[in-house]
Amino acid sequence: MPTPTPLADAFDRDLAVAHLRELTLEIGPRPAGSANEHAAAEYLRDTLAGYGYEADLQQFTLETYVEHATELELVAPEARSLAAIAIAGSASGTVEGEVVNGGQGMVDDLIGAGGRIALIERGGISYEQKVRNAAEAGATGVIIYNSEGGVVSQRLYNLAGIPAVQVSREEGLALTDLLAGGPVSARLVVEGSVADSVSYNVVARERGTVCRAVIGGHYDSVFIGPGANDNASGTVVVLEVARILAARDEADGVCIALFGAEEAGLIGSEHYVSALSEADHAALEVMLNFDMLGVGELWSFIGTTELVSAAGEAAEALGAPYEMAGELKGAGSDHASFETLGIPVLMFNCFCDPNYHQPTDLPDFIRRERLEQAAVIGLEVLEGALSEPAN
Question: Could you tell me the domains of the chain?
Fold first, then answer.
């Protein structure tokens, strides 16, 4: 474990990167319910305990999709194998037949897909909706290819009725070119199952404190990559904010929550809020969510108007470019679980990572100054939010 400097009350870039490398390179990919996710949870708990917090693991159960076998074979006009991975939540089965170009999977794109395998490009609508539209159009299977280079790991939050796989953009464009020249047929095999698993939230607070604020983010990743930006970056910023608050003796009223199983559908944060007592809920005034912080230039602040404005002022004081995204794009991360309860929220993010959900989401691409900016802005917003007496 990296050696902290607990008396330092400023952001420690080297320590943050050491934590990030531990999570991504030593522990590795941290999919929900996996041994690696559990190892990461224990590492985070022990780190926070080392900063003087009362730290523990909050256990919960979930269903996880287990991929057993995936095959995608081109049958005609040539025979060859394509690299494919099952979309988590895919139906199991074997289908063989004609491939049809399904555009971006919109309803109108899938006219004529009945009895065929639909080739669909990522973008426009969610994977969930693309697969649903294809199934409702009568397609026997779905192949989704990335809108950028490489393959991206995605999941469905409801089990699909037909086999569904994902391939790289390169493979998808090659299939599109073949379709332009005439009929194409393929054989698609997916074998998967749903199993009960255990995941954990890492929760910490100063002994005896009442949570007026929660600072958090998810520490799990997709199975295909080490998740340096998504979301080891947010995790290590939370660790540093927690360490700085402890060093300044300003941790009273602040609780730390690092969530498991975010990539499985916000399951960890939903469990956290469901476990709040009435008194805890009444005391909670703000939740700050740090998710995907380590790349890009522009900060995107999402959430409650007053908190978004405060973050914008703090960013401006740092000379950091930002946008006030407001409440329009706030449904895709753990703050949404708190927002549903009427708790003011703020998400720190940049929707700008070319390595999102890919094997190339590596520590080499993380910018240290971005991590520090997120911590400084977060501390400023937190101080302002808690400057008034408790409710």
Answer: 13-53+206-385 (3.40.630.10), 65-194 (3.50.30.30)
